[in-house]
Design brief:
Number of domains: 3
Structural class: alpha/beta
Number of strands: 6
CATH class of the largest domain: Mainly Alpha
Length: about 375
């Protein structure tokens, strides 16, 4: 998928670069021959578009690479950084337009009086750059690429700058040369707003700004809808290119098995992957719901490596000769409940007596709470109070 997206980005960007190169040359030559300072400045704008095309190609190629040891989350942030650079470029272009237009309004003698050659070249530029904008934006929306959107708007802004040249030429021909400067101020404002929006969004992504509140709430609802999820906490979200990175901790009941817990975790990931309308990278952690709710995990209770050898030492003499048993530990807020699982070919009454012996033998261990004997041939024996 990443390579397919890169191939599409590469094709449309190369096509745009070819248009920019041709237009920059034509505008520069036409501006000199036609005595149009505005068209020469517009040629410089097209040259900046060509430089941005090179930046887009580089960032798209890097961003399509798979994760590696140095970039385990992938390389999409290279596109984000390039988008920030393009946004800054648009702001600088807007500032240059505004400054030039202001100086021409203050010094009317600087306003050029071009002719029909400049008007024809400006019209050609508008058509070419508007076409580049539409085709580039179509690919950007297909692959949800802010980098291509930024480059598309760069093309649209070049078309608008050529429109400024057209207005200026028409104004000069009609005897109102100041119209060029007024239109340039309006277009510079539009360019600046576009650059600010692109740069702000890219900067927010680079500092790991979370998703919008309604998007986060939607994620919470989807997680809560998965059967077996008793609660959730530590939901953290961020963007990485066209992906959403989601980290969350869910609570599950303490008596379920590890395999069921893994199934619930998988169900949460599947629900978010299937329901969200974009690529997502979901990481789900688990914590046990305690009864009553406990503000802190039971860190003071011993681990299996400490408590199991003690239980086996106490219980092994009580077990039938040659029997094998497994221990399931359930950590509560202040105790460990233990399930003893073993095959039992005998009678239920014998299993009940064995259960009582096991519970009595575990009494000296303060960390142990309820003991249950779970046999293959009968229901769980009565728990110790």
């Amino acid at each position: 998928m990443a390579q397919t997206a890169f191939a599409a980005k590469r094709r449309i960007t190369l096509a745009g670069a070819a248009i920019d190169a041709v237009l920059a040359l034509i505008k520069a030559v036409g501006g000199v021959i036609g005595h149009s300072q505005a068209l020469i400045a517009d040629a410089a704008h097209s040259a900046s578009d060509l430089a941005s095309d090179v930046l887009v190609l580089w960032a798209a190629r890097i961003g399509a690479q798979p994760p590696d040891a140095n970039h385990p989350y992938g390389h999409e942030r290279f596109e984000t950084a390039a988008t920030l650079g393009l946004g800054a470029t648009l702001l600088m272009v807007a500032g240059g337009f505004a400054y030039d237009a202001g100086m021409r309004l203050l010094q009317p003698e600087r306003i050029a009086e071009p002719g029909w050659l400049a008007l024809s070249i400006a019209c050609l530029s508008v058509i070419g750059k508007e076409a580049a904008y539409r085709f580039t934006m179509r690919v950007a929306n297909r692959y949800d690429s802010d980098l291509l959107r930024a480059n598309a708007w760069h093309s649209r802004n070049d078309a608008l700058s050529s429109l400024v040249v057209i207005i200026g030429v028409l104004g000069a021909l009609a005897g109102y040369p100041f119209m060029d400067a007024v239109a340039a101020l309006a277009v510079s404002l539009l360019i600046g707003v576009t650059g600010w929006k692109l740069g702000w969004r890219a900067g927010a992504e680079l500092v790991d700004t979370s998703l919008e509140p309604d998007q986060i709430e939607d994620i919470r609802r989807r997680i809560a809808s998965v059967q077996g999820v008793e609660g959730q906490s530590d939901l953290r979200t961020r963007r990485m290119g066209n992906r959403w990175i989601i980290d969350v901790t869910i609570r599950v009941e303490p008596w379920i098995t590890a395999s069921e817990t893994n199934r619930i975790l998988s169900a949460v990931r599947e629900r978010l992957h299937q329901d969200l309308d974009r690529r997502s990278d979901v990481r789900v952690a688990m914590e046990v719901a305690t009864e009553p709710p406990h503000p802190q995990p039971p860190t003071a209770l011993p681990l299996r490596s400490s408590i199991e050898p003690q239980l086996r030492q106490l219980w092994q003499p009580l077990m039938p000769s040659g029997s094998d048993f497994r221990l399931l530990l359930h950590y509560r807020a202040d105790r460990i409940d233990v399930d003893v699982r073993m095959p039992w070919p005998g009678e239920a009454a014998q299993a009940a007596r064995l259960h009582d012996h096991l519970a009595a033998a575990a009494q000296p261990l303060a960390a142990i709470g309820t003991v249950r004997l779970l046999c293959e041939s009968d229901a769980p024996s009565r728990p110790r109070a």
